[in-house]
Amino acid sequence: MAAVYLPRSLVTLFLNPPPRHLSLESETLGQLVSDLDARWPGIADRLLEPGPLIREHINVFIDGERERSLAAPLSSSSVVHVIPAVAGG
Amino acid sequence: MSDRIEVLVGTKKGAFILDSDATRQQWRVRGPFVDGWPVHHLVRAGDGALYAGAGSPWYGATVFRSDDNGETWSQSSAGLTYGDDGPKVTNIWHLAPTPDGRTIYAGVEPAGLFRSDDRGDTWTHVAGLREHPSQPEWQPGNGGLILHSIALDPQDPKHMWVGISSVGAFETTDGGETWETRNKGVRADFYPGDPPEFGQCVHKMLIDPTDPDRLIQQNHCGVYRSDDGGSSWTEITNNLPSDFGFPMAVHHERPETLWVIPHSAPEAGRHMIDGHAAVWRSRDRGDTWQQLDAGLPIENAYLTVLREAMATDRLDPVGVYFGTSTGQVFGSNDEGDRWSLIADFLPDVWSVEAAQVAS
């Protein structure tokens, strides 16, 4: 099961919010987003833009490496961090 | 006099609600709601729900809804898309609930119109507008390619107008399947030659609530009224000190009363002229205008009031409210004769609406 870490700014968008840390059996990054969306409908719209692509200012790290491809594979030991890009203002 | 008045404020960083009793003299500030989200428009629909149109650089555009006066919020952008092959919807600029409360329209960036028939849970693209033959030539203005005005005919749910910056006004009579440009008589000084069929830069367009054949608009190039549903426009800039400004407001029962806020020229600072804050009111549909500045700062007040940031309530006398891009909200409980600062130190104010709620 991949370990997934979600940002506070994302989970607080849902009345029944996802936990900040959860485990999923997803085999790819795209499937992980789909699996999240199945449990918290609408979360995919916050993470993806047309393409579908990971939103420009959403960074996803798999085992510490930044990843943009939804086809990126996940393993049972993968650690996935979803982190909004830093911004000023 | 038992109703309360709310001034709904959308800002660069969340939304706020100012509320007062019907005297409109003491105001309480609540918020921020949807904190951290840029809110372009906050409205209260007829069923009491609050809707906030928002667009985040991180999480995209969405519409928030609260059914408990802002205590909790849900959000959805399901269907708010031009598809995987289309441009990304980046912002919700305007929300327009229908009078019967069954539908809410959303004007978005890049310019397009969406509707929801289930209180914002899902959205459907009103595709006919972007199928207009002019669409490939739509070009963004300084503020983007944005649909910011939706004027609904209160007597005919299939009849409406929309306004798009740097593109102009459109009318549909078939619920949005087909649209016609409505810009005749409106200047476009930034084009050479005669005004084009489209490309006019409408800043805010409103319908006369008592007569759907009558429209008004503050344009990049003047203030206008139409008596024929937008088929032709007459300039009513007249004695205003500038033809440039963003918002406009109309009295709900005596629509010969209008309010605008002239700003310095677009190539200048686009703020209150000479640092003298003033709202201008007409009692004759724009034939003549009167400067109103009692209670407003009249020296060194280089305020800017954006297109969505002025509103009126429905009490008698009407209350008028406007917010600035520097975080002040001013209000008048006597149709603009005298003003007071009703909130300060807010984030940049992008929208102001007034709502009446039962105590």
Describe this structure in words.
- The complex is a heterodimer of chains A (89) and B (359).
- By secondary structure, chain A is of the alpha+beta class.
- In chain A, 22% of the residues lie in helices and 28% in strands.
- Chain A contains three helices and seven strands; from the N terminus they run E-H-E-H-H-E-E-E-E-E.
- Chain A has a single domain (2-84), classed as Beta-grasp domain (Ubiquitin-like (UB roll), Roll), CATH 3.10.20.
- Chain A has helices spanning 8-11, 29-39, 43-47; strands at residues 2-5, 21-24, 48-49, 53-54, 58-62, 65-66, 79-84.
- With 359 residues, chain B is mainly β.
- Chain B has one domain: Methylamine Dehydrogenase, Chain H, CATH 2.130.10.10.
- Chain B has strands at 4-11, 14-21, 28-33, 39-44, 50-56, 60-66, 74-76, 91-97, 104-109, 112-116, 124-125, 147-152, 160-164, 168-172, 180-181, 202-207, 215-219, 222-226, 234-235, 244-250, 258-263, 279-282, 290-292, 310-312, 320-323, 329-332, 340-343, 349-357.
- In chain B, the strands form seven sheets. Chain B has a four-stranded antiparallel beta sheet with strand order 3-2-1-28, with no helix packed on it.
- In chain B, a hairpin with a 6-residue loop joins strand 8 (91-97) and strand 9.
- The relative contact order of chain B is 0.13.
- The model of chain B has no long low-confidence stretch (mean pLDDT 96).
- The chains are: A alpha+beta (89), B mainly beta (359).
